[in-house]
């Protein structure tokens, strides 16, 4: 009787799991199909999706990509547990990644069904290569599912009873499991050559299916134990007595840890056969990509240093560095809006400006402007409204001056300690050259910094500016931005006290965004629809918006936000048609800050820029049109600034988040124009001769 009940429960459990999986899968297919239909009728999708490989531009009957543990078509919780235990041996040294990782180690934003993803799937599951096979299999599975479900019940009963009767105990040292382990591991390592860590981050759909399976498994486990107690009262009575005796003998139960308690698990090392312990916490099981810029830099074997910077108004910024301490050429990289230093290293060793500059002998500094959800400030009790009360003015006259001065302090100290004759060689001049490479909002902030420092007659310490699609002029934009401009200007007095900033406020919703980015990758029609709608909101810009959402600087722990006053400042610039500083709303307030009733028009002060400037625009950029970058160029040229201008076939985010060899070569060619002065070159030759003499 006990065996019969076990068989019935086992078959029922697997049937329920199969039914729930197929139901969820059909729902996802419906969503993907509806998204494909909507995507087919949306205008302008071809230009928006043309730069992203693998998007489905027409409806398809092919079902969505199965979760990692369902690629063989088996709906079994035990199958997932087996796969997870095999993966644990190879995943201990691999972080979760939001982008595709090619054989050269470069990280790209995760675009749905990109080339490396398709290659990875081909290497792992060759039976899914044929599109027609998948098409007919999908059709017949829908038609024959009811008959298949009914006919499988007797076979499952027979198979379960047969395996229970012929089951033999196995030991941990048996050769068969180890052989299976080695085969599985070889396949996994082969996949990692092309796509090392991307598939290790689950999406919402995969998490939902896993949660349903775990719930069903738990329910049937309770039912099975209850049935066992009813059918075997003697065994139940003995178990209760044994449990009571263990308590009376002083045996302590294992304490129930909190959700953050860690569990020690043993895994076999790659080279050392002895088990090594690793801690698995609850937050790790959430399976999101929360890597930092430090993780990316050190993963590729580069040195890293974090330098805290405190601004004059108390904001704590993070200045990150790939140090080359004896270098006398410095590159300072500054990100744009809703971005962080991660943008400069997100394309891996080959495609990232930060790594390219370091390989060329530069000391690389990566700046982070104020505006993170973590709200780092010297005043730990600062309110959210007080923290977010800043505009682009504060980026240009508070953040960047503090960062540049910290770089100057660090470099001067290091060079003086390593080169004692530095003061005589430089004769009191700055002992290094610094080139700033800035994108979007960072370009506007660095221009504001240089001009205001010149007005205040303070050194700005920069030798060259390379500005990639810089902000500042925005009067040439589409209808969507114009509507947003008037809404901001009209509702600013009402919204400013209520909405201090724009960001995702809770860890749960940030985690949800991180996982949804993975779902957009798995289900191409849904991802294409989201990509198209986001592009509409960005003026039709064809950047890989969905891929950028999957990058780890949008993670559950932290993310960059946008202050309401920064957005209002951009609306003021667009409305005025000038590169102005923030308008405080009244002549008296402006007079107190600027000494004039109107905010300063920075374009009128371009003649104060005394360093070469290289401007770069994107022909496909719909956020900052090329005409607006040319406006910077014309004003600088007419003011006598040494300025150059170039255009590339790029969208707005392609300047940082896409691997563009042509752009990277251009940027590095401009950065390499920063050379030491003849006096410094002579001093370097003297130092080399002294080192040679010392070696002799």
From TrEMBL:
Biased composition (Polar residues): 259-285
Domain Partial AB-hydrolase lipase, residue spans: 294-348
UniProt entry keywords in alphabetical sequence: Membrane, Transmembrane, Transmembrane helix
Database matches in Gene3D superfamilies: alpha/beta hydrolase (3.40.50.1820)
Database matches in SUPFAM superfamilies: alpha/beta-Hydrolases
Superkingdom of origin: Eukaryota
Biased segments, Low complexity type: 111-120
Region (Disordered): 91-120, 254-285
Listed transmembrane segments: 486-505
Entry keyword Magnesium: no
A biological-process GO annotation: lipid metabolic process
PANTHER family named among the record's database cross-references: LYSOSOMAL ACID LIPASE-RELATED
Protein name per UniProt: Partial AB-hydrolase lipase domain-containing protein
Organism: Davidia involucrata
